[in-house]
């Protein structure tokens, strides 16, 4: 069996209606699979105003807007038309990338039709409630996730650190890695543009601390702003550049009145924005990989990040950046202050990060996932796939 024999039904909670790192990776995967002869059919909620054109055939799933976060949608049960479409497509593997209702239904369909299932983990959903004063829900969400992933033949995580978390949470007996790559044509030190920086009112001789990501509270906006407050009180010369959009932008602007908000940037504009930073600050703990961290490293920018899944696998402490205990604003401020006052250290760690980023090739990474698909299909054909988790504890 080779890649051209694959028929993949991919279920996503957000394939292209709001742009994020997870669906960018999924679209890149689908494009790569199609180029290599596989057949792919994607099932996801859709909107009339998608963020970008999807790769591959996209089938719209019924969905409802999430209360309070209407830009996102949650799927309902799979209607008969979707099940008929699945039957006609006749996948030889199902890939579930979101633990929503459609994902659970897709796993049940696969079990009935004796089709292997791969689950991919893209974010730490169980940590989200703590950002909305509902941390008591975390054990409940973790139990729901465990119920889904234990029914999969295997699951994959974007980083070694996240894979270890999944093992500790007893999510599956078969946990692999589907990492992330970086586009070196977009993210590289040559994209640095001081004229663009000046056009935003940023000075050449004052270090720029950058934030990149969707402006939502679960990205650690409170920790970021509290840390910047400490730098202000310490009278550390610095400037802040925020790249991204989201529902928490007005809150973030009120907390960082001196920051420059560049809004959404894409393609080469995004590469220019990242390379034009002097250091990158990522306090988030919800990412399973941290695409933005890798993009900063590929741009030759040192990183200060929370010691959490994703960043912990990317950033080498005191070599390519600094890893700090999550939420520790004093320690974050110490790390940022060290970089602000030492351009030689910024350069050394930025160059080390650039070198480390070179091993993240999209072709190698996506080929590895295709090989995982093939392995699971062969295991199922041999009668060794789909072993319940409880059978091997």
UniProtKB/TrEMBL annotation:
InterPro entries: Glyco_trans_4-like_N, Glycosyltransferase_grp1. Residues 20-183 form the Glycosyltransferase subfamily 4-like N-terminal domain. This is Glycosyltransferase involved in cell wall biosynthesis. Keywords: Transferase. One of its GO terms (molecular function) is glycosyltransferase activity. The keyword Transferase applies. It holds the Pfam family Glyco_transf_4. It comes from Blastomonas natatoria. Gene3D superfamilies: Glycogen Phosphorylase B (3.40.50.2000).
